[in-house]
Amino acid sequence: MISEDDVRQRALTLPEAHASAHFDNADLRVRNKIFASFPAGAGTVMLRLSPQDQAELLAEDPATFSAPDNHWGRQGWTSARLDRVDPVQLGELLTEAWRLRAPRRLVTAFDARHGDTAD
Questions:
Q1: Cβ–Cβ < 8 Å for 45, 34
Q2: Is it the case that residue 119 has pLDDT exceeding 50?
Q3: What pTM was computed for the model?
Q4: I want to staple 37 with a disulfide (CB 3.0 to 4.6 A). Which of 1, 4, 27, 63 is the partner?
Q5: Can you tell me the distance from the alpha carbon of 36 to that of 29, in angstroms, rounded to the nearest whole number?
Q6: What is the C-alpha to C-alpha distance for residues 28 and 70, in angstroms, rounded to an integer?
Q7: Quick one: CA dihedral 47, 42, 83, 38, positive or negative?
Q8: Is the pLDDT of residue 19 over 90?
């Protein structure tokens, strides 16, 4: 099982990512925009994804991924169960969540160093 610390360590390798908190939940941010959050005691990580990516994950693996039935879910916030999610896939999703929230200039610089991962 992946732990919150594993997720946090992976996310903090992304440019300007930092740990913070809101509403008593730990979160991960880039330039003060949240891209991932850890609901207290849930054993999940919430990721800010595109609605298209969210829909694909929910259709592909509903036992691992879910979305709240509210405005947060409609904005792309997607829950991944840490006891089920594939570590490689989670790393890719964390990067994608970061990309969606990071300033364009930061993403461009990241792509120049690591290769463009956008489809």
A1: no
A2: no
A3: 0.90
A4: 27
A5: 7
A6: 21
A7: positive
A8: yes
Helices (H) and strands (E) in the chain, counts: 5, 6
pLDDT band at 74 (very low <50, low <70, confident <90, very high): confident
Amino acid identity of residue 72, one-letter, is W
- From residue 7, give the alpha-carbon distance in Å to each of 1, 4, 45, 75, 108: 11, 5, 8, 22, 23
Cα separation, 55 vs 65, whole angstroms? 10
Confidence bin at 8 (pLDDT 50/70/90): very high
* DSSP for residue 67: -
- How far apart are alpha carbons 65 and 75 in whole angstroms? 15
* pLDDT mean across residues, the chain: 92
Checking if the pLDDT of 117 tops 80, the result is: no
DSSP designation for 27 = E
The tokens of 91 are what?
Answer: 């790393």
Q: Residues of 45-55 as b/e, b for ≥16 C-beta within 10 angstroms?
A: bbbbbeeebbe
Total residues belonging to the chain:
119
